[in-house]
């Protein structure tokens, strides 16, 4: 991920990149402050500053801000969303079950992902399963 911040006439002021959700200062000027080695900062030599995040992870999602240290801070905000493919958490989901007609059955399915996946129950032949109630 690469976020850009365009600044005219920075002069002697410094630009900092901040991860707002964590109130964490990531960079100041050309220097990386965070210990996260996936974070980088660069400048095009003119007016654009870039924050780079390598090997993006779900925890990198959130609001980022570039801020100039003027008397009244000037800032721009950007948002990073991380898409995580849906997956089923096997250890929290039901296995094959055998039961007699008329018995109650409880099935569990736990799925994760971003955005949050929707779970739909179907029979092996693809036909719908009509539930008496919905479980979240």
Strand tally:
10
Radius of gyration: 24 Å
Distance between the termini: 33 Å
Uncertain runs are none
Helix count, DSSP H or I runs of 4 or more residues:
0
Global geometry: rod-shaped
**CATH class assignment of the largest domain:** Mainly Beta
CATH fold-level assignment of the largest domain = Immunoglobulin-like
CATH architecture of the largest domain: Sandwich
Estimate percent helicity. Answer: under 10%
Q: Tell me the number of structural domains.
A: 2
Enumerate the strands of the largest sheet in spatial order, edge to edge or round the barrel: 4-3-2-7-8
What is the chain-wise order of helices and strands? EEEEEEEEEE
Structural class: mainly beta
Strand content: 35-45%
CATH superfamily of the largest domain: Immunoglobulins
If you had to describe this structure to a student in words, what would you say it looks like?
The protein is mainly β and 136 residues long. It folds into two domains: 2-80, Immunoglobulin-like (Sandwich), CATH 2.60.40; 83-136, no CATH class. The chain contains no helices and ten strands. The protein has strands at residues 2-6, 15-19, 24-28, 31-32, 39-43, 48-53, 62-68, 74-80, 84-88, 111-114. The strands form three sheets. A five-stranded antiparallel β-sheet has the order 4-3-2-7-8, with no helix packed on it. Strands 1-6-5 form a three-stranded antiparallel β-sheet, with no helix packed on it. It has a two-stranded antiparallel sheet with strand order 9-10. The protein is rod-shaped, with a radius of gyration of 24 Å. The two termini are 33 Å apart. The relative contact order is 0.17. The mean pLDDT is 90. Keywords: Disulfide bond, Immunoglobulin domain, Repeat. Residues 1-81, 86-136 form the Ig-like domain. This is Ig-like domain-containing protein. Pfam families: ig (PF00047), Ig_3 (PF13927). It comes from Cherax quadricarinatus.
């Amino acid at each position: 991920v690469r976020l850009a911040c365009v600044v005219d006439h920075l002069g002697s002021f410094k630009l900092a990149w901040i991860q707002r959700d964590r109130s964490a200062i990531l960079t100041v000027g050309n220097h990386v402050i965070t210990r996260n080695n996936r974070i980088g900062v660069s400048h095009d030599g003119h007016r654009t500053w870039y924050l780079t995040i390598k090997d993006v992870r779900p925890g990198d999602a959130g609001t980022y801000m570039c801020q100039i240290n003027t008397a009244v801070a000037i800032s721009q905000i950007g948002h990073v969303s991380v898409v995580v493919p849906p997956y089923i958490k096997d250890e929290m989901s039901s296995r094959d079950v055998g039961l007699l007609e008329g018995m109650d059955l409880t099935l569990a399915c736990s799925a994760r992902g971003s955005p949050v996946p929707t779970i739909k129950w179907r029979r092996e032949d693809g036909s719908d399963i009509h539930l008496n109630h919905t479980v979240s």
